[in-house]
Amino acid sequence: MATEVPLRGPHDPGTRASRFHTVRGPMGPSGWLRYPAAWYRAKTGRTPERPWLVPAAIGWLRRRIRSDWSILELGSGRSTAWFARRAGEVISLEDNELWAAATRERLARAGISNVELRLRPVDDFSQDIASLPDAAFDLVVMDFLEAPSVTRIDALRPAMEKVGPGGYLLLDDSDRPGYAEAFELLDGWRFRKFTGVKDEWPAACETGIFQRPGK
């Protein structure tokens, strides 16, 4: 019988059977295939310039993002440049001034100019999202650090309306018990679950991608 091991960190507030389980269950085959490389990167600190998501989800996105896509990103970082290299435009909301400055520096070094990075208090995220045109984005990425007064579910309510027909909404750490409401709000959307080990976080995580009906 597996022993319950509390694993707590920035992407893991719950208790799981082991570090090879998400909150919902065991890590899938793709996670095991990528585990040796993830372990090596965690030990050596050689972090790729890519989103901090489950690697299988990154591969899935790499095969689908097109150069004419519009992407709304909630929470900036290495992911911002990664998305911008593949899409037509990226709007990124970030509440941390130092993190936003680091992201702008990364974009400048890479010569990337198709990103609009907006520094906003996290409490204003929902209002700022609501002000954007409906059905205007091919992908909305929800991966920001929450505040006591604001959760990803709060932002998801207006954000889901910004996804165009056939478009995608990515909710990182979708196995968190606190995100169960997302599945009710997005009832009727197709759901893809990706499990594995993120860079520099050697324990199983889940990235969920919902597809809006249409097209």
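Second entry:
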Amino acid sequence: MTGSGVLLAVLTVQGAMMAFDELYFHRKRGLGRWERVGHPLDTLTMVACLGWVLLVAPSRAAIMSYAALATFSCVFVTKDEWVHARHCSAGEHWVHALLFLVHPMTLAAVAVVWPALHGRSSTHVAWIEGDRLVPPVVMGQLALAAAFCVYQAAYWNLPWRRASPGR
């Protein structure tokens, strides 16, 4: 399998799980204020990571910065668990647990293909070299994540949003 194939597989799994969580569980139970604000911010942390690897070529300082962004993102997405403990079904908790596993895997996969985004070879990851689909896959994911962030903010916070169940 190519580098873009592995990356696309991880991104597809994460995207499908996010879509299921959003379109089934969140719409079924509604979101309180904390989640209506917090979920778009979760997505924004992913947008920051994707934007970083697209805009900045890997270097020692850039890698350390990405590690900090990715670590922050992985910790930040757990901030809602005290709310989820009171409002989520067992099935939604399970989906969240899977997302907590896939999130760092996605960020790690993006880090692995990062040199290919800037035309650099990676001697320890030879199967990525020359894979011309890596940049469009990462750019596409950035566009999807940014669009999802806008959707989350608009759907849950603008006046036409569905009423939340008393939270």
